[in-house]
């Protein structure tokens, strides 16, 4: 079994332009995550970061604590935290799900439901939508 966390957070406007900030986060994630056995995906929708992290439970405790302290965002809210049989992003150190394509899958709507405290249904649907749109080496700048 593997731990899978889904969280939402709010970008800090003074951290830089959204594309540059996202690219920086993707780069550091792709550098660090393989050695940590972490996989996942990141996107942004309606001004909210959405990240899925998968890995060993204790490793994730440390990584999430570090990410929570990152000044590039605030208000990190874990909306789903569960043990799963299989990784949804096994091929990806940190996939990027293109916001425009994700929007077609109703991702923004699912995020709104999760913000409002919805249960596990929207979280599962959101992770599935991100897996559908996940791409290996894309960056946010193009
Ligand atoms: C939204 C968001 C997601 C992040 N995701 C990861 C991640 O998956 N892996 C990671 O190592 N760092 C991630 N970071 C960056 C960490 O907060 C931190 O800057 C980084 O781990 C420091 O790595 P370094 O010591 O190698 O410079 C993320 C930051 C933000 C704002």
Automatic annotation (TrEMBL):
Q: Which organism is it from?
A: Palleronia abyssalis
Extract the PROSITE patterns matched here: BLUF
Residues forming the BLUF domain are: 2-95
By its UniProt entry, which Pfam families does this protein fall under? Answer: BLUF (PF04940)
Can you tell which superkingdom this protein's organism belongs to?
Bacteria
Family matches, as InterPro entries: Acylphosphatase-like_dom_sf (IPR036046), BLUF_domain (IPR007024)
Q: Which GO terms describe its molecular function?
A: blue light photoreceptor activity; FAD binding
Q: Please report the name of this protein according to its UniProt entry.
A: BLUF domain-containing protein
